[in-house]
Amino acid sequence: MNQLFIDFKEVYNSVRREVLYNIIIEFGVSTKQARLINNLTERYNRVWVRQNLSDVFSIRNGLKN
């Protein structure tokens, strides 16, 4: 018997938002709505390095949980 395991968390975190944006346009979502969805999914972050806060950087993969 063969078994298959799919790690949905990893799949969910590997979504490239620019690809998702193009897909929803192809499905007929209006450009205005697609831009709204895109803006809602944009994420930025900063990290502490020693005692300094890094510059802001964009997170390009994954979706909000």
Quickly describe the structure.
Helix content is 42%, strand content 15%.
Question: What features would you describe in this structure?
Answer:
By secondary structure, this protein is an alpha+beta fold. The protein has three helices and four strands, in the order αααββββ. The protein has one domain (8-59). The protein has helices at 8-13, 17-26, 31-41, and strands at 43-45, 48-49, 52-53, 57-59. The longest helix is centred in the middle third of the chain and has 11 residues, at 31-41. It is flat, with a radius of gyration of 16 Å.
Annotate the secondary structure layout:
Layout: H1 8-13, H2 17-26, H3 31-41, E1 43-45, E2 48-49, E3 52-53, E4 57-59
Antiparallel strand pairs: 1-4, 2-3
Helix pairs in contact: 2-3
What structural keywords apply?
4 strands; alpha+beta; two-stranded antiparallel ribbon; two-stranded antiparallel sheet; 65 residues
Give the N-to-C terminal Cα separation. Answer: 34 Å
Q: Strand sequence of the main sheet, in spatial order?
A: 1-4
**Sheet of most strands:** 2 strands, antiparallel
For the secondary structure, the number of strands is: 4
Protein structure class: alpha+beta
Low-pLDDT parts are none
Mean pLDDT: 77
Number of helices: 3
As for the number of domains, it is 1
Radius of gyration: 16 Å
